Amino acid sequence: VAIISLEAFAGICINAFLVCVLCTAWIKKKTLNSNEKILLLLGCCRFCYLCISWAYSFLLIIYPNYLYVHTILQLIVSFQSFFDYCNLCVSACLCVFYCIKISNFRNSCFTYLKGKIDRIVPWLFFGSGILALAIGILAYDIADKAHCNNRNSTAEGNFWKINIKMDKHFFPSFFLAGFGFAASFLAVIFSAVFLLCSLWRHKHKMQTNSMKNLNMEAHIRAMKSILSFLVMYSINFVCLVLEMVYVTKKAGHMTFLIVVFRYTFPGVHSLILIFSNPKLETTLVKILP
Predict the structure, then answer these.
(1) Does residue 158 lie in a domain region?
(2) Does residue 260 carry a pLDDT above 90?
């Protein structure tokens, strides 16, 4: 519990910092650009996800009886799935935004998207919210069916049997989570490939004037962010698959290590985003002492 709590609170603090800085800038400037809007929504989703995940882990380890009270488990699983998918979708949106905004392809489709990307971002938010809401409702339904099948098994001696039954019901949720990870992962991969191709083309055409150098720096900064997405998504996806395998095999210690490792993703990646943004990095350096 101590390890999970320490990890969760670290991620909560990092994302709370991200949200507070962007909200302060929003109040001062009365507006936010598209990049800041995506970062703000991403920080909010990760903050809520970590809070709910920590509460679920705390109840699962310390007070497991409360998870068999009707609607508690269902609501926790539903909200956790909702914010997890929001996190995935908004992360993928950020990668796509970097790719379209910075890439310098002459393709008519890229040119059109580059001019309309600021208007497209709210629709991406809307689509992500609808998809995450649908996944949350499905997760609630799966958890509710598992609870209904296990409501007659409430004795402490039957907990192991209850968990076996619940694993079978939660397998579809693992499948849905895998589908969400795979779709977001593909978006990140394509964004990284397109941006890398754009960087390569720009490097060969680069001249020695300052505008070109600034464009080069923007490419490199975006590539660092997207590659960090790629690495973190890869690790997170592998952990999801391993978690699905070891949960069904009742390997408690391995499952615990995988869950602990997965909790590092929202905090560590948000920290990478903070250090890749000059304004956020400067603010963090100022308040750390």
Answers:
(1) no
(2) no
Residues contacting 5, CB < 8 A, separation 6+: 54, 58
The two tokens of residue 73 are 């488990």
CB 41 within 8 A of CB 125: yes
Question: Which pairs from 109-118 meet CB under 8 Å and 24+ separation?
Answer: 117/34, 118/33, 118/34
User: Is 155 a member of any domain?
Assistant: no
pLDDT tens-digit profile of 217-256?
666 776 677 777 777 777 777 777 776 666 555 556 666 7
* Tally of domains in the chain: 1
pTM score of the predicted model: 0.80
CA dist 67 and 72 (Å) reads 6
Given pLDDT bands bounded at 50, 70 and 90, which one contains residue 47?
Answer: very high
Banded model confidence at residue 154, pLDDT cuts 50, 70, 90: very low
On whether residue 157 sits in a domain, the answer given is no
CB atoms within 10 A of CB 169: 18
Structural domain boundaries, residue 95:
1-149+164-286
The CATH number for 216's domain is 1.20.1070.10
Does 159 map to a domain? no
Rounded to an integer, what distance in angstroms lies between the CA atom of residue 140 and that of residue 142?
6
